[in-house]
Amino acid sequence: MKKPILVVASTGAANLAxxxxxxxxxxxxxxxxxxxxxxxxxEKLLLPGxxxxxxxxxxxxxxxxxxxxxxxxxxxxxxMGICLGMQLFCKTSQEAPGVAGIAAVPARxxxxxxxxxxxxxxxxxxxxxxxEGFVEAGWAYFANSxxxxxxxxxxxxxxxxxxxxxxxxxxxxxxxxxGIPAILLCxxxxxxxxxxxxxxFRRWMGLKADSVEIAANEGLERSDRISDPTPSSNRTALxxxxxxxxxGGRVVKGTKFQNLVDSGDPVELAARYExxxxxxxxxxxxxxxxxxxxxxxxxxxxxxxxxxxxxxVGGGIRSVEDAERLLNAGADRVSxxxxxxxxxxxxRDLAERFGVQCVIVAIDAARKADGGWEVFIEAGKKGTGIxxxxxxxxxxxxxxxxxxLTSIDRDGTGLGYDEELIAAVARAxxxxxxxxxxATQIPHFLKxxxxxxxxxxxxxxxxxxxxxIRTLKQSLSASSMEVRL
Length: 485
Description:
The protein is an alpha/beta fold. The chain folds into 2 domains: 5-224, 3-Layer(aba) Sandwich (Rossmann fold); 239-478, TIM Barrel. It contains 17 helices and 24 strands. Helix 1 crosses helix 9, helix 8 (266-276) packs parallel to helix 9 and helix 13 (388-398) runs parallel beside helix 14 (419-429).
């Protein structure tokens, strides 16, 4: 049986690896192009979106792709837009004043309220409006600082709430027989939204879900019907991130960055954690040689093919080119540590090239005698004299979308997170914080969240089978923490 074809319009900035992986998992053949003629004739077309509005529009307009995309919307040719790809179809965006969008959708894109931590980063509930007949209730993964709030004429919609209600999806041009809309514009990333996102994509492509996917989504849908987003919600669901330290193509774990022991195959561990309910997988390259770093790229690509949730990758990133290689291999976000300390402008360069949602600054901190915390680099071996809290604040100003905060004193000890450090960095930076270092028991994770972390990272307890992600999330939910069950 011939595979259905999906033409993917390239903006030159989007990370396409996750979209390609979603296509391959669902039996769809992706064709990536900048050719307007091919895009115009495509049976189905997708416009992905990672990057900046202005740069993406410049790329589309340079080859006349913007006119083709506008025509597809007007003619109701089957077209899908993802995140920035949705926003590009609108008239304008506050992200790029003076830059005209494709203007096929009569809407304006505006920035979220400045009182909210931006970008909105993580999992949020999607709730269809009463007349929406295609997008189902579920958990979706978002990474955006801008949004649409008004429903354009001629469209049905689904909503989410992040401090305020905003449009999560727009649909138009429904086929009377199949009920599939010609136009599907998603502010979220279906390719990173687990089984729910994969099901949505399958249905839009006109494919039947397989039995495993149906079972997974039935479970998700039941949990999603428990409650709708609350208008007061100003944060995404608390995320659980298993961390896989990779060396020589294997996962390893140590104590205070020392005494590493083998913990398994990265692809199998990552797949197991997604099945247990992990919200994101963090891969950390701790390789010592160039040959090992090439092996890590292979590991990232292999994990990407199996997973339908986000992957963040750090370790050894010293330039925009290093980050681009990892993103092309399958990472959705990258984290920088030592190189950012040595060259803070690297943070700004990465944010301008790939968008703030793509940039994580990893901070390894150790407590000082005076009660503060010092930034360490080179895998915790070298002190810098830099105050960790002030460094986090500066990173946020430079364009970091999130801080990965590791307490060297607690790493691998099983004593729990440094809650005082988490609270100080969360307050000073004003952006999302991933807590790391020392959590092995359910109370440790709960206290980390209460201290202000938006995401909780664990490693050893998960690898050794002492704690399952499913059990952890059920316990956090029972403690009134909003988690994606």
